[in-house]
Known about the structure:
Layout: H1 5-21, H2 38-45, H3 52-66, H4 81-85
Amino acid sequence: MAFSKKTLIFTLLCxxxxxxxxxxxxxxxxxxxxxxxxxxxxxxxxSKASRQKICMRACNDCCQIxxxxxxxxxxxxxxxxxxxxxxxxxxxxxxx
Length: 96
């Protein structure tokens, strides 16, 4: 089974590219993004909600997924696109 020089060089370059992009599953050097304080951010986000327990549960779920909570007590969804795009099974926005 003979490989040409071009095939070997191409394979080597692909391997290096995968290493650089950290796509390789065996890479143990990936650094996780710092997790924000979801409870603190959601407490403020839900402080004016009429149903605070439901708001806190939804907000914490979304924060755990996105690691982001928009500033303020409502609106500002453009500051956190992931948070703003999560929907329920019924198609309604999940995150307060």
